Amino acid sequence: MESSHALELAKHTLLLFGVILGLGTLSSLLARFIRAPDVAVFLLVGMLVGPDALGLLDISATSSVNQLILIFGASYILFDGGASIRLGVLKEVWISILLLATAGVLITAAITGLAAYYFLHVPFIIALLLGAVLSSTDPATLVPVFKEVRIRPRIAQTVMSESAFNDAMGAILTFTVLGIATGSENFSTADALSGLLKQSLYGIATGGILGYLAALLISHERFGFLEEFAPVVTLMAVIGAYIAADGMHASGFMAVFVFGIMLGNVESLGFSRSKAENRQLEDFVMTTALIMRMFIFILLGSQVNFALMDRYLYAGAAVVAIFMLVARPCTVFLCALPDRRARWSFKELLFMCWTRETGVIPGALSGMLLGARAPGAEIVASVAFIAILVTILIQATTTSWVAKRLGLLSGG
Question: pTM above 0.85?
Fold first, then answer.
C-alpha cells in the first residue's frame, strides 16, 4: 500500500512538472511576442492556474518539492548571473556593491518598517520584521531581466551583484528581528555583524575554491580532462557549492554566485576554452536557467493567497509605494553616491533606484515565517506578495523603457 501511494505521488508530481513546462513554453512565446520579461508572464500565468483561480496547479509553499525547486532554481540562476560578471567591472564598483548589500539593507528595512508601522498599525517589531523580509533584492528576477535588456555593463553587474550579496544580510536581519519578536534572542550588534561576516566570507571562500577547481578541470590545458563534461560539472558544482556553504551556516546563494564569477572569468585565472566549448556551455546554461525561471515564477504565482492579500491590500500597497519610491532611492543615493571611485552619474543612480524587484528570497522568508507561525506572519506574507507582484509586474516590465529614456542601454 505504501509503495503504491509513493508511486501515485510520483506520477502526480511528474504530471505537475509537465504542466509547468508546457505552460512555461507557451508563456515564453507570449513574452517574446509582447516584448515583456518572461518572469512577469510566468508570474501572471501562475496566478491564473493556481488553486485560487483555475486550480490546475497546487503545490504547497511548505512542501519539499517546492523548496527543492526554489533552492536549486535560485542557485542556478545566480550561477548564471555570476558567470556574466566581469572581474574588471567589479574592481571599479566594489565599494558601491559592499555598501548596498550591507548598509543598504538596513536603510531599506528601517524606512519600510516605519511605513508599515504607520499604515498597518502593527507593533513596531512586527513592522520591522516586514521591513527585514523585504530588504533584500531578488537575483532570480534581476538576472534574467538584465539578460534580456542590454544595460551598460557596470550598472547591470552592480545591481546583479548587489542582489546576490545582500541575501545573507537580509536573512540575518529577518531572523534577528524574529528572535527579538518572539523573545528568544537578545539583540547584539556584535553578534549580528559577526554572523554576517562569517556567512559572507565562508560563502565567498566556498564558491571561490569550487569555482577554481571546476575551471581547472574544465579549461586547464593539461588537467582539463572533464572538458567535454562541462555542463554536468556545472550542475554538480552548483549543488556542491550551495550544500557546502549551507553546511557551514554560510550563504549558499553567495557561494554559487561567486562560483559563477570564477567559471565566467577563466581567462583571468590563466585558463582558456575554445569557442565551441564556450558555445556548448552557454547553450546548456541558458536552457537550464530558462527552465528554472519557469518553475520558480509559475510556482510563485500559483501560491499567491488572494484572500490574504485582499485583507491588507490598501495599507499594504501604501507600504510598497514607500518601499519603492522612498526606501530604494534613499538606499541608492546614501550608499552609491559617496563612492567617488565609481563616479556614478545622476541618470545611473536614478536607474538603480528603479531596479528593485522583489521575488524568491522575500517569498521564501515569508513562507518560513508562516510555517513557524511567527508573530504577524500573515501580515508580513500579505504585504510581501503585494511587493512581489507590484515590483515584478511594474519595474521588471519597464526596465528597458526606463533605461532607454535615461540613455543607459548598451551603446546608448
Answer: no
Are 78 and 97 spatial neighbours (Cβ–Cβ below 8 Å)?
A: no
- Side-chain-facing half-sphere of 20: CA atoms under 13 Å: 27
- CA 205 – CA 258 distance, rounded (Å): 8
Q: What is the C-alpha R_g of the chain?
A: 21
Q: Cα separation of 139 and 163, whole Å?
A: 5
Are residues 130 and 319 in contact, defined by beta-carbon separation less than 8 angstroms? yes
Q: What is the 3-state secondary structure (H, E, C) of 13-29?
A: HHHHHHHHHHHHHHHHH
- The distance of Cα 288 from the centroid of its chain, to the nearest Å, equals 16
State pLDDT tens for residues 279-296.
Answer: 777 788 888 888 888 888
**What are the grid coordinates assigned to 30, written together?**
507570449
Would you say 138 and 355 are in contact if contact means Cβ atoms under 8 Å apart? no
Distance CA 199, CA 101 (A): 13
Q: Which residue has the higher pLDDT, 281 or 212?
A: 212
Q: Which CATH class is domain 2-405?
A: mainly alpha
Q: Are 193 and 244 in contact (CB under 8 A)?
A: no
Q: Where are the domains of the chain?
A: 2-405
Q: How does pLDDT run across 86-108, given as a tens digit for each residue?
A: 777 778 888 998 899 889 999 99
What is the three-class DSSP state of 57? coil
Is 247:285 a contact under the CB 8 Å cutoff? Answer: no
**Residue labelled with grid coordinates 493567497:** 305
Write down the pLDDT at residue 372.
Answer: 67
**Grid cell in block for residue 247:** 553546511
Q: Which residues fall within 8 angstroms of residue 295, CB to CB, at 6 or more apart? A: 20, 24, 69, 73
The distance between the two most distant Cα atoms of the chain, rounded to a whole number of Å, is: 68
According to DSSP, the residues that pair with 409 across neighbouring strands are: 151
Residues in the chain, overall count: 412
State yes or no: pLDDT of 127 exceeds 90. yes
- C-alpha 364/C-alpha 400 separation (Å) is 27
The answer to whether 363 touches 387, Cβ cutoff 8 Å, is no
Q: Read off the DSSP letter of residue 391.
A: I
Residue 1 pLDDT greater than 60, yes or no: no
Q: How far is CA 166 from the centre of its chain?
A: 9
